[in-house]
Automatic annotation (TrEMBL):
Coiled coil: none annotated. Belongs to the N-acylglucosamine 2-epimerase family. Keywords: Isomerase. InterPro entries: 6-hairpin_glycosidase_sf, 6hp_glycosidase-like_sf, AGE/CE, Cellobiose_2_epim. Its EC number is 5.1.3.11. It catalyses: D-cellobiose = beta-D-glucosyl-(1->4)-D-mannopyranose. HAMAP family: Cellobiose_2_epim. This is Cellobiose 2-epimerase. Catalyzes the reversible epimerization of cellobiose to 4-O-beta-D-glucopyranosyl-D-mannose (Glc-Man). It comes from the Bacteria.
């Protein structure tokens, strides 16, 4: 047997194993949210404890609810299980009833357990997930309701949050869309007014909306977001993204967020391929690979997992956050697809092994979602919640679905 034939067989076996693991992990994740987070009275509980008990009186965030809508819609598109479409519509109906601001447009940041607004702030970051979920629901099932919800949110952001002078989107607004300086994405207003994190989720949501809404203005905006990701937010020296920017796109910090960087790498090529044009796609591919290379420096050589943050001097945060691992798997696998270089498949599998060994929790033989931090014991306080405002099925569920779809295309 020739060396390249052996390599091909080994790759096929790896891909088959990865596909099987992704399918089982996805089923476990989705079943978890159906069994433990679903509120039969409407929407989903705002938190679920380590013990698998829902916190029925917990506040509910738009981030968790919109991500649930997206995840279940995407799962229905992929697997056609009617339970998933039911869950996606369950989330959508709750969002329409309780989060959408029927007077000023957009959506509230947080409501209480009874659906009453408790934080009426408007964050483009959160509203982007409604666009993402509504558009995916339309893509998966032809839902006119989902499409209208996505379009309404898109139009609100274009009217109120867009920086018409310099491009991009500002961070935070009052209920009636007056701009505020504070943002959870930017720890200090002196660091800037525009955040990488928001633009990451703008590009994924607008790209998905473009797939179901052939609107010239929307298409133009997706092209502008691709330009922002490749020219304004990208540090051309280090090939990491700049986390905080001023109105006119001046950088104020060189913090490297490995999870956001590797996420941005694959979202960039996804957007370019959806937008179309061979020249643009070919321009974005090497950028995505170089970002993956830069993020590989953040891999823990002993465990295979990806650390949280660094700067030009080295690591500054050794947390092993669950969502960072999810994005690392997709980002390194995307680099493997773009280059056919087995080193990226090896990086992918190293992170997958870390997830299996440290993050995906099967305590007492029962799947208990993922730990928030794989570097801490399951009983640590930072791992108390299986679900909360920031802990949902979006990152890890999407990781599984991306792998399933990408492997299927490679094997076709």
């Amino acid at each position: 047997m020739k060396c390249n034939e052996r390599h091909t067989m080994e790759t096929k076996e790896t891909l088959q194993s990865l596909d099987e693991w992704s399918r089982q992990e996805l089923k476990d994740i989705l079943d978890f949210y159906i069994n433990y987070d679903y509120d039969p009275k409407g929407g989903f509980y705002g938190a679920v404890l380590r013990t698998l008990e829902p916190v029925r009186e917990a506040d509910r965030s738009i981030v968790l609810n919109a991500r649930l809508m997206w995840t279940f819609a995407s799962a229905y598109r992929l697997l056609k299980d009617p339970r998933y479409l039911e869950m996606a519509n369950h989330a959508k109906d709750y969002i329409k009833e309780h989060f959408v601001d029927k007077e000023y447009g957009g959506a509230y940041w947080v409501v209480d357990a009874h659906g009453n607004p408790v934080d009426e702030s408007k964050y483009p970051y959160g509203i982007a997930f409604i666009i993402y979920g509504g558009a995916e629901l339309a893509r998966a099932s032809g839902s006119k309701d989902g499409l209208k919800l996505a379009r309404d949110m898109y139009e609100a952001l274009e009217k109120h949050a867009l920086d018409s002078k310099h491009g991009g989107y500002f961070e935070t607004f009052t209920r009636d869309w007056k701009r505020r300086d504070d943002s959870f994405n930017i720890p200090d207003p002196s660091l800037g007014s525009k955040a990488l994190n928001t633009h990451l989720h703008m590009i994924e949501s607008y790209t998905t909306l473009m797939l179901v809404d052939d609107d010239p203005k929307l298409r133009k905006t997706v092209g502008e977001l691709i330009d922002i990701m490749t020219n304004k937010l990208l540090d051309q020296e280090y090939f990491h993204y700049k986390p905080y920017m001023t109105d006119d796109w001046k950088s104020t910090d060189t913090l490297f967020s490995f999870g956001h960087d590797i996420e941005g790498a694959w979202l960039l090529t996804e957007a370019a391929e959806a937008y179309g044009g061979k020249e643009l796609v070919e321009k974005c591919k090497p950028v995505s690979v170089r970002i993956a290379d830069a993020c590989a420096d953040g891999i823990n050589p002993d465990t295979g997992g990806l650390y949280a943050e660094a700067n030009e001097h080295g690591l500054v945060d050794r947390q092993m956050s669950w969502w960072v691992q999810s994005e690392a798997v997709i980002g390194f696998f995307n680099a493997f697809q773009l280059t056919n270089d087995p080193k990226y498949l090896a990086l992918t599998m190293n992170v997958v092994d870390y997830i299996r060994n440290y993050v995906s929790d099967h305590s007492d033989g029962k799947f208990r979602e993922w730990l928030s931090r794989g570097d801490l014991d399951a009983q640590d306080g930072d791992n108390e919640f299986r679900v909360n405002a920031w802990k949902g099925p979006y990152h890890n569920g999407r990781m599984c679905m991306e792998l399933i779809e990408r492997i299927a295309k490679m094997q076709a």
